[in-house]
Amino acid sequence: MTQHDKTLSQDTLPQALRSAGFHGDIDRDTALLSAMSTDNSVYQIRPDIVVAPHDSADCAVIAAVLSRPEFASVAVTPRGGGTGTNGQSLNRGLIVDIRRHMHRLLAVNVEEAWAEVEPGLVLDDLNDQLRPRGLFFAPETSTSTRCTIGGMVSTDASGKGSRVYGKTSDNVLALQIARPEGLLSSNEVSPEWAAPMLHRAEQAARGGRDAFVANTPRLNRRFTGYDLERACPPDGRFEWWRLFLGAEGTLGLITRIRVKLRRIEREKRLLVVGFDGFRNALSSAAPLLAAEPTAIEVMNETVQKIASDSGLLDGLPPALRAEPDREIAYTFIEFNGNDPAAMAARIARCRKILADLPGADTIHQASDRSEIKRLWAIRSGSVGLLGKVDGPARPVAFVEDCVVPPENLPAFVDDFRTLLTRHGLSFGIYGHVDVGCLHFRPALNIDSESDRDRLVAISDAVFDLTQEYGGIFWGEHGKGVRGAYLRTWIGEEAYAALQAVKRAFDPEGRFNPGKLTGDDDTIMGIATTPFRSFNAPDGDPLDRAFRCNGNAQCLSYAHSIPMCPSFKATTDLRQSPKGRADALRQWHRSRAKGGADDQLEADLLRTLDSCLGCKACESSCPVQVDIPTMRTTFYEDYYSRHARPLADRLTLITERMSGQIKAVSPILSPVWPLLAAIGQRLTGTQDLPSRLAQRPASSLRLSYEELATTSLPDGTVLLVQDWFTALFDAQVLEDIADGLRALGYRPRVLDMKPAGKAALTLGDREGFDRMAHALSVQLVRAAETGAPLVGLDPAFVMMLRQDYPKAGFTVPKVVLVQEFLVRELETGKTFPSVLYDTPLRLLSHCTEATAVPQSGEMWTSICQTIGIKTETPATGCCGMAGLFGHQSRHQSMSATLFNLSWRTQVETDQPVAATGFSCRCQASRLAGRALRHPMGLIAEALRR
Hints:
Residues 602-633 form the 4Fe-4S ferredoxin-type domain. By secondary structure, this protein is an alpha/beta fold.
């Protein structure tokens, strides 16, 4: 065991940090280490320890403690959103998780148009906070929902609109960094202790500046990272902080950033153009620049087909949707400005240019900002979908952000495509043609040694090709392990200067070692850095864990987006689909070797226990990393070797016996409060329903046995219950039945049979199979009557739709009530109407909102037909999720989630309805408000 291993395997470092006043989190949890081992690249490096500082002072403590001789061998690497495509934030030693706590907007100066932020602040979060002030931070990345400002600074990130707004480095005004001696800010007078370090850095930068300038092409997407040119401006100043822009954490810890802001332009337009082929779409860029657009981006036919097959292009106007025999390459052209007349002139000029371009078949213009946002989301969402392909080879990001002069782009792309075709590779292409940057993602199987050899060969060839066309190998996504090419690209003299800058700030070479600069034997290479496992065996139930590519849409900061609630509540990477997938892969490998890592299993149990099972990951993740389903597989294996907790056994018994409990509910009702109290103590829960629902009226009930002998009149709707609503929520049955009657239908409720939700969640596959088989048989019998089947609770309906087919059960379609009613309207059904002026606020269950994203629009259409105004605000998870919100160990997370997006929606004077049983329970217990199902309010309105 090396001294490094001894240092990190004992409590020495954590104790030293605490003793020095570190207030943040310190973790060696194996699930978290697995999560921190990967990013959005094909690489995997397992760290030894993770710390999450609370503020700049904590970062200074880290720097001070690690400067001690006993910790000299500990590598230190900061990590933001972990969206890097080239292993930028992967390393051994200590990972500094900046995002978890350091995500505050510290100051805004509206007059001077700047803001100061902590580096863990997410880009969209910053811009959402700036929007009311009429300002924004310009670099717009496709990962804007989860990438951090610190990560953008460290990689000098770019994106849409960079031709006008510049890269991140063009929009930073000052930095603060943490040193062992304290904090150093570039916009304050430097303390005396910093003078020797800054002097050495200046000497190195000035000595290599001319060679640096001579070897960097003059492009819009300029080369940065140890930017010797701008660090030493012609006026003789030394702006040391510019060396950190694009340095990828190799010079130290950034703790505070002053960013330049821009005024939000009043006018915005977007043209989406469908071309008959990618070559024509690509060739359109140069002539379109004459119309002065803010951005021009393209998608080739491969990306279009993947997006179309996934339903993402359903948001496009019908004329722009591809047909089976008609592939389309898309060009997105955005215009921004303040003068409507000038905007109209630019649009007119653009249309005139398009009229003369070959292959421009269809043009759609969007002026509404919400529509423009939706259309751009199609482009950005398509990136993640590139990983959603069948087979062991999948598109990989490793040569995807080369930049060449725009006039050289068509020829460069031709040669690039020829190269990939010669290697027999398929590929997707998208990107920013206005600045000469296209993203190629060749499909490789990283588990295959021959494909790893191809990765190296293609990287070498593309590097040469980029130089041939006067471009830059790293134009947008940073360098990471591709820094191995830096010495050849920048030249020996300039590279020596970069090495000297590194030594000035990091003499021990401990900050993100192996990246960008260093000794030849320490630099990581694209072939020598460990690769992550790419595929599971065919048919393996954990296949989706291996297919997680780190795109990390599950790490979106927005509270109104359901995925992923446990991560939103904690900002802890292990509490996310990506983190759980990483840990499941690690566990899978240990089990495949015939054993089980006890510590990993214990840590994995904890992180899976905090998953709310909402299934938003299955619906919203581009590659459908379905954590609840994979959790079932883990539990099934684990509990075949370990005893189940008493609480789980009681839950399984209750579900299995729920039909019998319902049958004797009149007898049990008087003693149910006592039974519920005993159950809470035995199961570690609280706020369980204290009353049993009474059986519905006999005129409403219909047993499955009666289906064969009962003639159902026209207009009959069969209502299907889950066990929770059947036992505890008589109101929802009454509301939906009343609403259907008021609309002219004859509702009947089928006897409840448990669907096996708890059994599936807890890994009791045998118990689930029994219940699922029994329910499936009865639902088929019900469907044979020809009457529509409508489920009472969205989570139950989605289980039948998502989980039953995966488990091999075929069931007739059970629809949500709004799906049924919209279908009726489409067939010409008319509903009675009322005058109802008070808007109804309607809140959807999160599982429903992600699996049926048009659900809110359906309710709006129904209510509008009846005469009821509605609001359907976007909300995340309410924090209940079945039993999760009742379990005592989850109370803090449950309440946090409710407060994030539900409380403000519920605490209002206007009528509020919620579609989910869990959501109504949560609103009652945490906000003291009894919400109704929307059908109940519709029934009341029609009665009035």
